[in-house]
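Entry
Fold in token form

___
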Amino acid sequence: MSRNVETKTYSLLEINRKLVDLTKKNMGDELGKLQIELEAVVVKVHDRAYKGLKYVHCEENGVRLQLIVDEELARNIKKYSVYRFTGYFQIGSKLQNIVNFRVKSAELTESREHRFNVLKTKYYREKNSLLHLTSAFNYKIAIVTSKTSEGLSDVKGLLEKAERITIDVIDVNLIDPESIAGGINSAIAKNYDIILLIRGGGDNFEPFNSEVVCQSIYRSKIPVITGIGHENDKTIADEIADVASSTPTDAANKLLTVIGQANDISSMSLKKILLNERGSTTIGAMLIMFLIMAILIIILFYFHLIDIPKRHDQ
């Protein structure tokens, strides 16, 4: 048996207020009483403070939590380091951050530098050579990124102008390390000539510091060129890649430089082959002419010998 359901239309501000009020009513008291220890990687520390407080963002596999930290305490919190935060949850005033974590203390458990050094040492490898490109007449390029990533259109625009290049975009979620690693592994399985791993600007490059992404680059026999963020955004993926670039556009330009050099080498090799073939053809022709002349001389000499007795008989 069906029943009529009353439908009411809300504006965005109204639905925001209603959901915040409902959350406070049903969860506010309980959340405030619950003391919690939270261990997480910091991906962003806001520059500006508001009433003596700063916002700090932590993220893991696409799950982001906003922390509220005293300005004095926030000064010592560094991006991409792991902290153990002690505090409690509180209801926010906006829908996108309806639950915040109010930090009372923060303890550094692993610095960014330590994490970088451990993974760089663990996944250090000899760089893949780009010399194999000199033997190719069509280059297959895999661009591992999100189809909505900033800079992708610029990169494609540059590469599509070049000759003898085939481009495939492998679409991944750039805030999910597993998705990024899966995109790299897919490019490896399809045996591309070069893998471009790119991402435009932003404030969270932590996925490119993850172990699963480092493993995929480490295992790749195909050269990997990175172009992640802007010039100051350095990640472990950059350290392990065969060629690291400051931006996605810079990565495309470096690739074109390599391909241009490869084309020059290929052209030079082709000219050498043609010259060798021409040289071989010339030598062969001379040998044939020599053999023909020798045969003619032998024939003439043979008839000359036959003609001598006839003269004596006369």
